[in-house]
Fold this sequence. Notes:
This protein has 225 residues and is mainly alpha-helical. Helix content is 53%, strand content 5%.
Amino acid sequence: MTKIAEGCKARLTVDGEEFEGEVPLEEIEADTKKVVAGGRFTYIFDGYSHSSPAAFLQWANACFGPPSFYVFCSCDAKSGQFEERYKKRNEVEDVDENVLEEFAQQAKDAENERQTFQNSIVEHCGNRVNVQTIATDGSLESTISSVRSQFSAKVVLVNHEKSLNVDTQCANIAIKYNMLYISVYQLIKKHICEGTAFGKALLAKKAPKKLSADMTKDGDKFNEA
């Protein structure tokens, strides 16, 4: 919403005179609503322009309904990551005591805001929101892995007409998104052809059916019999 507010300034510029001062909240809300109103995507709000979590949730619920997830990212001060990241970003070898005190205060403020936000979620959304806490103490790679484990689909079922050959496409998608593709039809055929115990059990349960007239008029070109 901070970037949207910057866009509002450009929109509110009149006769080349740049808009000065704080952008009215209703202008930010209006532009945000235009972006999200399509409803064809999932949006992540990284912060908000409202005065409190309750005010933000009240507005967001009225416009878009309750959020699907609330994610609180935490970094344990005892992990030493605060200091290491500060030194890397500022290219220094030591961290001043005043900075450490500021870190401690920021951690307290973050915990207070988390509690306030969660209380507001319960008040405005009930139990319909999935609340997650993700630790960011480790590397970027471990953090990404943690996020994926929370939100990525574990199992995807693809249902399609048997006459469609989708094995190659599904296999390519599985490779792209680091998943395992299992074709049920191929798996059944493999067990039956190899005569495994599972394949024999499948054959014993087989109940042949006559093909419908629609399926036989073209000569059963997909060998479904």
